[in-house]
Amino acid sequence: MKKMNWIKMGFKIVKIVLIFLLVMIIQANISDKALVKTENFNLNMTLGLTAMAEKEEEEIPREVIIEKNKENSSVINKYTGDLTGYAADCPLCNGTLACKRSYNVYRNNVITYNDETYGNVRIVASSKQLACGTVVRFNASSISSAPIYAIVLDRGVTGNSLDLLMSTEDAARREVGRKKITYEVVRNGW
Fold it and tell me: Looking at the DSSP assignment, which residues form a beta bridge with residue 88?
């Protein structure tokens, strides 16, 4: 009789250990998926691309209005941080943007966004310190001799850093690399 109780108790212990192991495996799998998702945002993603903006027919050309808005934009805040580049065709990247998921930069082959106020602007990733839709202005002579206007449509960096969307990972490394910049916020969010 006592032997049967020990056997039953042994089976219960084995059952509890198996359930515990199953829970640990499931939890580890969920953690791995969350880690991959987080790494996805942190990788320098590459986005091969050129934007095709719709041109509206108006009495005053839209480009003139946009240039006037850019010239008259007042500086809300100034930050200093690192500028890096990323692209959408990296491994584990899916081309969607954290702030505008419907705007798939990889599938649509774009690195710019057509903003109503600022026109065709570059896309950057920032920390949550800058709201989605924030427009920044900075100089990067390796990319353009004119000031670059960019809109925050992605996440994945920390602090005051910006990650500029480039056409390829090679262009991101070659043209942007990692450099200290000072950038100005000319619009806070949408």
Answer: 46
Contacts of 70 (CB under 8 A, 6+ apart): 118, 119, 137, 149
pTM: 0.64
From residue 134, give the alpha-carbon distance in Å to each of 9, 14, 61, 128, 129.
Answer: 63, 57, 24, 11, 10
pLDDT tens digits, 49-93: 323 333 334 454 556 555 656 666 688 999 999 999 988 877 667
Spatial neighbors of 35 by CB under 8 A, at least 6 apart, are none
Helices (H) and strands (E) in the chain, counts: 4, 7
Task: Give the number of other CB atoms < 10 A from CB of residue 87.
Answer: 27
CA–CA distance, 45 with 110 (Å, rounded to integer): 13
